[in-house]
Amino acid sequence: MPDAPAAGEPGSPRRQMHLAAFVEGVNHTTVWRDPAAGDQMAFASFRHAAQTAERGLFDFFFLGQGLRMREQRGELFELDIAGRPDSFAMLAALSEVTDRIGLAATVNTTFYEPAELARSFGTLDHLSGGRAAWNVVTSSDAFTGGNFRRGGYLPYADRYVRAQEVLAACAALWAPAPAAASFTGRYVGLRGEPAIPPPPQGRPVLIQAGDSPDGRDFGVAVADVVFSRHSGRDEGIAFRRDIDARATAAGRDPRSVLVLPIARIVLGETGRDAAERAREIGFAQIGPERALSFAEQVWGRDLHDWDPDGPLPDVEPYVPDTPVMQGRVQSKADPRATVAAWRARAERDGHTLRSLMVEIYARPTFVGSPKEVATEMAARFDAGACDGYVLSTHLMPTGLDDVVAEVVPLLQRSGHFRSSYPGGTLRDLLFAGAA
C-alpha cells in the first residue's frame, strides 16, 4: 500500500472504516477439526478472540446465535456438534477482560419477551460501561420454535411486525422517565416498571441483517448498523445506494446507518501463497459430507450415496413438504433454476460437486499478501461500497491474529483506520466525527 498521511493530517481521508469481529459459532466456515482450533465452548477461546480484536481497535466483537441443533434428513447434523455458549453470559464475562470494544449479541425477537430482552441488554450495557449491541434477528421457523413455548406460530410476513413491536416495548423499558412502561401491539403487550436503570447508551446499538425488501426497510427504520452479505465492490455500491435511498425515504440521514458487509481474509507472503492457502481452507471447510449436505438442500432429496468428488447429480430437484435441512434459513430461490445455473457453471469451469460447493459457499472476500488485501479493502471502502467490514474467520480463536498484526497497521498508515480508541460509548465510537 502506498505511503499516505496519517488520519487527521492534511490530505488524509475524511472517512475512516469500521472493523468488527464476527464469531459465527459452528457452521460450514468453522474448521473445528483443524489441530490449531480451540475449544468452541471455552472462555479462553473467546477471550483470546475478543482481546485480539480490541488490540486491533475494532469497533465491536459480535457473536452469532443458535437456538436449536440443526437436523439433516431427520437426524442430528453431526458436523455442527461443537457447542455454542449463551451470548449474554459470554459477553458479560468478556466485559471484564476488555475495555473499549463493543460487545454484540445476536438475539431473536420472535421467541423472547421484551421485558427479558430489555433487562438483559440493559444489564450488559451497564456491566460494559456502554458497549452493548443487539443484532436483531427474526424467525418464523416452527422447527426452531419447538424449543419455545409459543413455537413457530409466527406467519413469515409478520416476522418484522413482531420485531418492531418488541423493539418499541424495549424502548419503553429503557426510557429515562420514571413512569410505568406501557406498549400494546398485535403480538406484544407490556405494562410494568423497568427492572433496572436506563442503560448508559440510552439503548444498545442496533444491528440488523435482513436482505429482503421488507428486511431492508426494517433495517433503515431501526438499525445503527446494517450487516450485509454484499461484500463485492459493485454489489456493495448498489446495496449502499439502496440503503441510502430507503433511509432518506424513512426520514433518516443516511450517514446514521452504517453498512458493514461480512468479509473473510486469507493472507500469504505472496498472492500465490494466499491463493493456495485459500484453496486448502475451502476444502477443509467443505468436506465430502458438507458438500453433499449443501447439495441435498437444493436437490431436496437424499444424495448420501453420491460421489462428492464426481460430477453434479443428474437427477432433477424437487421441493419436499419438509425441508431436507431444518434449523437453517431456507432459500426462496427456485431449486430448478439454481441447479441449472450450477450445472452450467460446473461444465464451464470443470467443477466437481465438491469443488463447486467450495467455490459457492467458502470463497473468501480478500486473498493476497497483507499489502494486497489492505489495498483492496481500502479501494472498496473509498468507492463507497461499505463503511467497513465485519471480519469472520475459519479458525477459532486465532484466525484474526495475522489480520490484526499485518493488515490493520497498513490501513492505519494509509489513514483508513484509527490509531487509537476515542472516548465514550460504543455508539460514540461508531459515529465519532460524523457531520
TrEMBL record:
Location of the Luciferase-like domain: 36-385
Origin: domain of life: Bacteria
UniProtKB keywords: Flavoprotein, FMN, Monooxygenase, Oxidoreductase
InterPro entries (UniProt xref): Diverse_substr_monoxygenases, Luciferase-like_dom, Luciferase-like_sf, NTA_MOA
Keyword Cell cycle listed: no
Homology family: Belongs to the NtaA/SnaA/DszA monooxygenase family.
Stated name of the protein: LLM class flavin-dependent oxidoreductase
Higher taxonomy: Bacteria, Bacillati, Actinomycetota, Actinomycetes, Micromonosporales
